[in-house]
Each structure stands twice: as C-alpha cells, then as structure tokens.
Please model this.
Amino acid sequence: MHHSVARYLESLRVERGLSPHTLRAYGRELERLEEFLDDRSVTPEDATLQDLRAYLGRQTTGRPATLARRLSALRGFFRFLVKEGVRGDSPAERLVGPRVPVSVPRFVAVDEASRVVEGPSQDGWFRLRNAALLELAYGAGLRASELHGLDREHVDTKERVVDVKRGKGGKDRRVPFGPPAAAALEAWFAVSDGAALFLNRFGRRLSVRSVHRIVRDAGVLAGIPDLHPHALRHSFATHLLAGGADLRAIQEMLGHESLSTTQRYAHVSVEHLLDVHRSAHPRAQASRDPEEEV
Model:
C-alpha cells in the first residue's frame, strides 16, 4: 500500500474513529486506484482529473450508494494530500457523483415492537439475557455493535441510563431507557457475572453476529421475518418522534453527527400522517374517485 494511503487510513481511524468495516472498504478502493494509476505510471501525488475519470470509467457501475462511497473515498484521500502539503489542489473535487435516494428507515409498529421484546422463546438463563438485550436495543435505540461492546458498569438501572462508549464515529453518549428495560436488566444481572454486559454460553462477550441472530429469532416468533437490530433502533426513533419528542433530543440519543441523518425519521412520520389523512379525511376520500368529482 502506498505510504500516503496508509497515512490517510490511519488518520481516519484516529481522528474520525471510523469503523474497521469502513476503513477496509476505503482501503480496498484506494488500493484499486493505486493499481490503476501505477499501470499508467502515475502516482497519487501527480494524478489529474482525467486520470480519476478514467479510473471511475473502468469500475463496475454498482448501486448509487456504492458509487457515492467510492467518490467519498477519493475526495477524502485527495483532500488529505492537500492538507499534508503533498498536492496543491484536489482533482477529486470536480468529480460529479450520483444522487443517492433518501431511504426511509424500516421500522415496526409499537405493538409489533412490544411482541418482539416481550417474547424470547428460550428458557432460564438464555431467556433472561435475550429479554434484557431486546429491551435495551429497543428502549435505548442501540446499534448491534454498541450492544456487543457494553460492559455491566456502563448500565445504571436505578437512574435508567446507559453509557455508550465509542459509538459510531468514536463518540460517547448517555441514553435513557424505560422501566421495562431496567427490570429486564436487573433480572439478567441476578443470574450473570462478568465484565461484559451480554455473555454467550461460554461466559464470553456476545458477538455482533449473535446479537443479530437473537433479534432475528425474536422477530420470527413475533411474526416479523428478517428483523434486524437497526429496525429496532429505527423504531425507537420513530416512536419517540410520533410521541412528540424533540428531534434534537433524538439526535443526541441516537448519536447522529448530523441532524439531517435524524430527519429521515421525520419522513416516516409524515408518511404516517398522510396515510391517516387519506384514509380518514372526508375530502381525501372523495378525491379518490374521479367520477365523484365530476
């Protein structure tokens, strides 16, 4: 790997706290760029806009999100070279990328979420662990990786808050949760022991994959196939917003860096309001039949 790429990836890890998955994706992209430039006897320090356009033209089209990430890696890398004084300008700034459609996050209704968190099927120790994990996932809107990384000392069931350490972007935050999650955690504490909050059958920290499996299995039992932890996180935010919570407060609880990310949940609520209006308002119902308007 070119030394400039290695330094850039290290800066992303240290300064921005990007996840290993994101760093690997950026690293693969920049390695492909290096190989392409090397075949043209060009270094990243000397690459032009035409070189970058030629590189992008050689790549498979992919989804808009993939293309957007590819451009993000290139722009970030060449900005880094400018910042380091290696280049005087960034040719990547003039690259035009696709418009990524705003996706409405998947979420489940309140009664569906209740069925998920209240219905772990295992007995004894496993049931108590899974109930505590599901209640906290939905009650605090935590990511699977955050549930995996929690220690017992991060949870205060009396104050009903959880301290998330080094969430996405390396940020810490404190998130409240409700009485059901507190009760489930207390029951789990009574039968478990260890530094990690959630343990597997061997007494080791529960893996991210196992967190996904527990949520998926709970979803199947509740009649919601293909449920994943992020859907519970989306539901947490959507239900708070529908209940009148301030968008800024939801942003803090979710740990979003930008309010625009949190605002995706407002789209969900607007769609719900539109559905209610269309189904209940007399004028909305009348407008469905063109012949009635003649």
Remarks:
- Residues 287-294 have pLDDT under 50 and may be disordered.
